[in-house]
Amino acid sequence: MQDIKPDNILLDFDANGTRVVEAKLADCGDACNVGLETDPCGTAHLISLIWGRDFHIFKPLKVSADDAEFPAHVLIQQARYFGPFPLSYKTFLDEEQEKILAAIHIYIEEQGIRKPFSQVEDKEITSEDKEFLCDIMQMDPMDRPTAKGLLKHGWFDMP
User: Fold this and answer.
1) Better pLDDT: 59 or 109
2) Which residues does the UniProt record annotate as the domain Protein kinase (predicted)?
3) Which of 40, 57, 84, 120 shows a CA-CA span of 20 to 30 A to 27?
4) Whole-number average pLDDT of the chain
5) Integer distance in angstroms from the first to the last C-alpha of the chain?
6) What is the 3 state secondary structure string of the chain?
């Protein structure tokens, strides 16, 4: 899910820079600005809004936000439900980051904690909600729907 807000909408303008030719949703939850407070669980807010009960799917249960390993544990949660991270990430990562993602996948498999979000069962989340969230939570940014495509999603037509 993307945390749908202006900061997470990427616009591609025409050559003149005057007209938007494409828009895509992105999640900038792992980005930070020095001196500004950020929310490391920003990605989960849409899921929380749909699911309710102040549920934060990516918030690690046993690691506090000020722990140096907190970001890795957020990634573990993300990969548990929406992973694995795609091979296309290699173009964005340095060698150390690749090792971290590989270690996350090994940890998830060794602990047997993978739980695809599409298989989550709860009376408060419908199959339509899960389908919508899985569509916008594609791990590969290139597979995520454009804003225009997202607005055409059947989820918005539900009663």
Assistant:
1) 109
2) 1-156
3) 120
4) 76
5) 20
6) CCCCCHHHEEEEECCCCCCEEEEEECCCCCCCCCCCCCCCCHHHHHHHHHHCCCCCCCCCCCCCCCCCCHHHHHHHHHHHHHCCCCHHHHHCCCHHHHHHHHHHHHHHHHHCCCCCHHHCCCCCCCHHHHHHHHHHCCCCHHHCCEHHHHHCCHHHHCC
Could you tell me if 137 and 82 are in contact, meaning their C-beta atoms sit under 8 angstroms apart?
yes
Which residues on adjacent β-strands are paired with residue 22?
A: 12
* pLDDT given at position 13: 77
* Cα 83 to Cα 80: distance, rounded to the nearest angstrom: 6
Tokens of 159: 């009663």
pLDDT confidence tier of residue 31, bands split at 50, 70 and 90? very low
